[in-house]
Design a protein that fits this description.
InterPro entries: TRAP_TAXI. Residues 1-29 form the signal peptide. This is TRAP transporter substrate-binding protein. By secondary structure, the protein is α/β, with parallel strands linked by helices. It has two domains: 32-116 and 251-294, D-Maltodextrin-Binding Protein, domain 2 (3-Layer(aba) Sandwich), CATH 3.40.190.10; 118-250, Periplasmic binding protein-like II (D-Maltodextrin-Binding Protein, domain 2). 33% of the residues lie in helices and 24% in strands. The protein contains nine helices and twelve strands. The chain has helices at residues 2-23, 45-56, 71-79, 90-99, 157-169, 181-189, 205-208, 262-277, 279-284, and strands at residues 35-38, 63-66, 85-89, 108-124, 127-130, 136-139, 151-154, 174-177, 195-200, 215-217, 232-236, 245-257. Strands 1, 2, 3, 4, 7, 8, 9, 10, 11 and 12 form a ten-stranded mixed beta sheet that branches. The radius of gyration is 25 Å and the shape is elongated. The N and C termini lie far apart (60 Å).
């Protein structure tokens, strides 16, 4: 009987020690329950890339997607402590820092520099005609510089891009903001605006399916020196809408706050390390977004999370 009692006491004591050790374990031993990541609507480049990253970095189950309208909302959510990570256009981030002088941007770090999304300038297809004397004339917009005094519709992070291009090029275009792509394109169809500007990675399905008899992609005839530091030169290739259209592209980066807590830092650094090591898998796996072929994980002048 004495031996049985002693055994019970020893078991109880061991259980107590184990419980105490569990309760007092350092926070860095556990990953955060969930961290929300602001992407963009379903089917967007950001949403698809987040999906692909989750497939190759399977230990990142602590990251939970929050679909949004795009870069501006994503940045606001991140700065407002409503999400922990966000996919953001670099020009949106730079504009908030350099133009709006928001001091909170100093605490943001890039977890991953990603792809470049092209600027698509869309208008109704210009109409060419001859008068009775054989003189050829064109009705409609054929390039960016012809938007002087005209109305340009856009939405989301593209609003920032449109305003930066307006300031950098010196073309006094009237920029109208809409709720989303459908509202903007409906306004173009109705003749309420003269052109649409959208920042999206090509090939964008909704651009590819535009009626080529009604719409055209227009060149951004802006000097590279004028947009230096914000954009890089690019070319749009949609055979039905006009292949070889000169434009610019802006980088998209995955941004996070400069967390100090060990469990969050450890989880995010492990995710970052996995992504950096899995670039070939991201580029070569069938069904993954084609924009992975543009990613190097090297370009971007925003400070790293490390």
């Amino acid at each position: 009987m004495r031996q049985t009692t002693a055994t019970k006491l020893a078991t109880t004591f061991a259980t107590t020690l184990l419980l105490f050790a569990t309760l007092t374990a350092p926070a860095s031993a556990t990953a955060p329950a969930f961290l929300d990541v602001a992407t963009s609507p379903k089917g967007s480049t950001a949403a698809d890339m987040f999906r692909d990253l989750g497939k190759v970095c399977k230990g990142a189950s602590f990251l939970r997607q929050r679909q949004t309208s795009g870069s501006v909302e994503n940045l606001d959510l991140l700065l407002g402590n409503q999400v922990s990570l966000a996919f953001v256009q670099l020009d949106v981030l730079k504009a908030r820092d350099q133009i709006d002088h928001d001091p909170r941007t100093a605490e943001l770090k890039q977890l991953l520099p990603l792809n470049f999304d092209e600027i698509h300038l869309i208008a109704k297809r210009p109409v060419t005609s001859k008068n009775i004397f054989g003189k050829v004339s064109t009705t409609g917009i054929t390039k960016w510089s012809e938007l002087k005094g005209k109305k340009l519709g856009t939405w989301g992070g593209s609003v920032v891009t449109a305003n930066v291009l307006k300031a950098k090029s010196g073309v006094p275009v009237n920029i109208l903001e809409y709720k989303g792509r459908d509202d903007t394109m409906n306004a173009l169809n109705a003749g309420q605006i003269d052109a649409v500007l959208s920042v999206v990675g090509q090939p964008a399905d909704w651009v590819r399916t535009l009626d080529a008899s009604k719409f055209a992609l227009l060149p951004l005839d802006i000097s590279p020196a004028a947009v230096n530091g914000f954009y890089k030169q690019a070319t749009l290739r949609y055979p039905q809408l006009g292949s070889g259209i000169p434009t610019y592209a802006v980088q998209r980066i995955l941004v996070t706050r400069n967390f100090k807590t060990p469990e969050r830092r450890s989880a995010l650094l492990n995710y970052q390390k996995c992504a950096l090591s899995k670039l070939p898998d991201l580029q070569e796996t069938e069904g993954f977004h084609p924009k992975w072929s543009d990613v190097t994980f090297k370009e971007s002048d925003w400070p790293w999370f490390k």
